[in-house]
Amino acid sequence: MSILKDQNRFKDIIRGKIKDNFKKYVTHGEMIGKREKEYVKIPVPSVDIPRFKYGKKQQGGVGQGQGQPGDSVDGPGEPGKGEAGDKPGEHNLEVEVTMEELADILGEALELPRIEPKGNNNIDVQKNKYTSRNFVGPDSLRMFKSSYKEALKRSIACGDYDPDNPVIVPIRRDMRFLSSKPVKKPQTKAVVIYMMDVSGSMGEEQKEIVRLESFWINTWLTKNYKGLETRFIIHDAAAREVDEKTFFSTSESGGTLISSAYKYCKKIIDQDYPLNEWNIYPFHFSDGDNWSGDDTRFCINLLKEFFLPNVNMFGYGQVESKYGSGQFYRDLEKQLPNDERIVLSRIESKDKIIDSIKDFLGKGK
Amino acid sequence: MGNLTPELEAERKKICKIAAEAGLDFFDTIFELVSYKELNAVAARGGFPVRYPHWKFGMEYEKLSKGYEFGLSKIYELVINTDPCYAYLMEGNEFIDQKLVMAHVFGHCDFFKNNMWFSKTNRKMVDAMANHATRVRRYVDRYGVDTVEDFIDKCLSLENLIDRYAPYTSSAQVVEKVNAVNGLNLPVEDSKKFTVNKEYMESFINPVGSSSQRESQPRIETAPSFPAKPEKDILLFLMHNAPLEEWQQDVLSIIREESYYFVPQGMTKIMNEGWASYWHSKLMTEKIMDDSEIIDFADRHSGTMAMAPGGFNPYKIGIELMRNIEERWNKGQHGLEWAECKDLDAKKNWNTKAGKGREKIFQVRRDYNDVTFIDEFLTEEFCVENKLFVYQFNKQKNKFEINTRDFPLIKKQLLFQLTNFGQPIINVVDANFENRGELLLAHLFEGVELQPDYMYETLKNLQYIWKRPVNIATVMDNEGRFFRFDGKEVSSIAFNDLPKNESA
To answer: Does B61 contact A56 at a Cβ distance shorter than 8 Å?
Structure first.
């Protein structure tokens, strides 16, 4: 149908609009709130065709129903009338975009390279696919249409079929059932481990930045790896694993021992993610204020010996805050110069999120 | 003829016969059974199977598909005003739905054929639309989809700036316009044109911009006052006078022609739906249905007639007014004597047993459009009975609320909404404004201001076509103002603030 061309054209226009305004969306927290598993809702500026027309609010109209003067009514263009698109304020259209599309747009807007999965970690997964037909099977898998067709064929062949009284009585032999076939599929597995410093110096704004950034990192990685797993670790002087909600809502206080998080992260990897099967992406967000130089040295050792040789990429994002010294960034920079496997990024404010995402994902790892 | 199942075909024949016996007079009507996807696709293109490629149809399709798939809305009937009429039935609708739709469609077809406002309509519009599509596709191939689509966007933005009554007036000047509607024949000597048998082939055999036409096309000198009098058909004015390339001129003519095609539909929405609903209800309940179907019918019918609180349903108002007219003329409740009767009781029980109701509504469906229909037949009794009211926007409460149930005000509001289709009346008044080749439009202010954000964007599109700066004189925030777009920014100046030496 040629309408599909028009429809794709429309979708392209919307995508174009989203891309044009992408920077704005990246820093829009509300969008993430509207995430519904596979879709996000994005407010798109006008896709209407402008005309000289009366302002709806000025015009008023004629309605029908109960009520006294002064009672409020729904106004024009409410459901039931079937004439979509003349509601006041309609030009802020909200479109649903799949996460997949959003990732594409992200990729295009930031010119992100596709990720090359770590070598030799493709493993076969066996899955049952229900694609074939069989003569036997449970009733729950009976194929109604096929069974009906078989019965119809049989009754026509036998001469029982009467077009004026088209009653078909299927017998056992007519039944068809869906049956499964095992298929092997190569699958790449990936896990993202987010670590966040929740010491007193990380305020609401800093957390919001981490939240937005991790949303976009997730979006991109999910596109590249089906079935992406995420784990969350928060730490101050001690580290613990939490769920996503807690990750973004906890505020603790106290000192900062970054090594506690790294140790905990190592523990998770050792326990759950065999290194040869998994693509591993640890990300650490902090304001860069570590307790002591000793601890920092310990962290760097851990990075050198365990993380860097084994993970795809280690991301360290430093969120600027009033209280943080930002020393950790400088230490990493000094100790691990020109190491491709660790990506450092400074996020001064919400507006810099987009650059930071590019820092992290721009290498195609 | 169509692809109906034997059962539906039998039903179609039966209903067609019943409708004809009831006095309906229609073109041949071809029913097609289509899937919901096809139906949505056709509906998205305004009822036509082939239209020029444009994203707005895609947007409409997306809306309709989502509405259907989520179970929010469903299209029951779709009928195109052509000869023969094409109507669509949706696969998988219940049998009673299909019957109801058929009965309803015959009502529409009768209306299309007999209402005088449809008398100027091109009845081969399906072909014309398909030709337009071919032309636009050719331009897309030549100039690229973005260029062409972008230009179509700009034309569509001005689509409502036509003279809706032009096809019905008969002054010589307008005849030329009507010709132009049917394929852009700018006035040329006949000898230079090829003979055309089929009207819709005109634009192919004598395409616009062919050398003969170009030579003879009147080059209009930009005189001090041009146009001589305010010109309402702004699209035609632009076609003739804006510095457009040939393909752009052609695209503009396509948009204009299609815009004119949809005018009668908009002009008779209440009557047309009222008429079709009147007949489906009458035929179904009296002739077509059997007893077992009455509940389902009542369910569908009431669904169609439902009014959301504060909404306005043309089906409902239309059918009620039609029935009201029939009853009044049956009982002789019209004329001077009735109007002057002050005794409410006598008025209520007035019955001269005139029995002219049926005859009257047939005459009404022939001669009226929504404006004259409401103007003549909306009575105070009707407004009270149907609980009509006027609502306004209350700025303090940021809500719409009921303003009044006063009959004259209801009527005034309704007529205002219907006159010029609720579109502002805008004329070209000067094509050489301030002697700088700028375009000046004037909005005939009727108490309602234009929506500013839409106005700015539209001005930009107009400027793209006119190339020189464009101006519109209108009222904004209770003050007469000029708005001007010079290609870079929109500026505005109040009439009062104009320097004295300039003409306002």
So the answer is: no
